[in-house]
Design a protein that fits this description.
Elements lengths: L8 E3 L2 E3 L4 E2 L8 H8 L5 E2 L4 E2 H5 L3 H6 L10 E5 L3 H13 L5 E5 L8
Parallel strand pairs: 3-4, 5-6, 6-7
Antiparallel strand pairs: 1-2
Length: about 110
């Protein structure tokens, strides 16, 4: 019988094993949903998609969407936007305030106000 081995996914200093990523889904991948998914196996769990403009404007609803459970690691976030300046400022806020360990950027979403 042949046994296959799978390689873990590496994202910088983080090892994601099993190499499965829960995609960010607006209105779905909140703290409670990620906790439920985590009970069925480890991997990388991304919070809801976060719009860069709302981060820069410090929108309270967006800040709530950016929360992670204690011990949730790595804290992964997908940041979306269309304006490079706004994206840069949002990344500065997120990294400067230690709000996430991993940021995935999405430049393909339509332009939005929030």
């Amino acid at each position: 019988m042949m046994t296959q081995t799978r390689a873990a996914l590496k994202l910088g200093q983080y090892v994601v094993d099993p190499p499965v990523v829960l995609a960010p889904m607006a209105g779905i991948t909140n703290v409670a949903f990620r906790r439920l998914c985590r009970e069925y196996g480890a991997g990388l769990y991304v919070c809801e998609m976060i719009t860069a403009r709302a981060v820069v404007e410090r929108d309270p609803k967006t800040r709530h969407m950016m929360t992670f459970a204690p011990g949730e690691s790595p804290r992964s976030m997908q940041l979306y936007g269309v304006d490079p300046t706004t994206m840069r400022e949002a990344v500065k806020i997120i990294t400067g305030e230690g709000l996430a360990d991993h940021i995935d950027t999405n430049w393909g979403c339509p332009k939005s106000t929030h």
